[in-house]
Amino acid sequence: MERIAGQAQSNVRMIYAYYGSKSGLFDATVAEALRRMAENVPRDPGTLPAGPGTSLIIISASPRSSA
Question: Which one of 20, 22, 44, 66 is separated from 5 by 20 to 30 angstroms, measured CA to CA?
Answer without folding.
Answer: 66
